[in-house]
Design a protein that fits this description.
Layout lengths: L5 E2 L1 H6 L3 E7 L16 E10 L5 E14 L6 E15 L15 E5 L4 E2 H12 L27 H15 L1
Parallel strand pairs: 5-6
Antiparallel strand pairs: 1-7, 2-3, 3-4, 4-5
């Protein structure tokens, strides 16, 4: 396992730092249960910046292939991740804004003098994965079955009423 890159996030943002590299999927342990194979690498970029309002931030991007498991047929699915997220850095001790008040394209995080870049990349990958992974329908080994519409049997209470009438006749 290689040494994990760490940055002082506030300093990195204010100095417009830039870090590019690739990380082996095997070095992202929280992905191990989500992928079919831990081989391969993901390319990432971390860019520091200060926006027009003077707020420091980080832009994280990650791209690369992952081998996932189809939830329909359990076969392998080639998935290409290509995700970017913008983070606004908030000093430690300052409360983060309510998520509903954040802009859709920016997420607030606390600044960290020892921010683990791989953990940030791993978070982004996990958030970018689809909730349900499946082949396109025509490529899946287990095709979807067509559901037949149920035949209307009337009210379920009419069935109960019929059974109650039968019970009265027996007694």
């Amino acid at each position: 396992m290689s040494e994990r890159p760490v940055v002082d996030s506030m300093k990195f943002a204010k100095e417009s730092g830039e870090l590019k590299g690739s990380v082996a999927v095997a070095e992202l342990p929280r992905l191990h249960d989500l992928v079919l194979e831990t081989g391969g690498c993901l390319d990432f970029g971390l860019h520091g910046q200060v926006d027009e309002n003077g707020k420091p931030g980080l832009r994280v991007s990650v791209a690369g292939p992952l081998m996932l498991n189809c939830h329909r047929c359990l076969g392998p699915v080639d998935f290409r991740i290509d995700a970017t997220r913008m983070f606004e850095l908030v000093p430690v001790g300052t409360p983060l804004a309510d998520v509903t008040e954040e802009p859709m394209d920016v997420e607030q995080v606390h600044a960290d003098p020892k921010m683990d870049v791989y953990t940030l990349v791993e978070d982004e990958v996990i958030l970018a994965l689809p909730m349900v992974i499946a082949h396109p329908e025509q490529d899946c080994a287990t095709p979807l079955t067509k559901v037949k519409p149920e035949i209307s049997m009337g009210s379920p209470f009419s069935v109960l009423a019929g059974q109650a009438n039968k019970a009265k006749k027996i007694h």
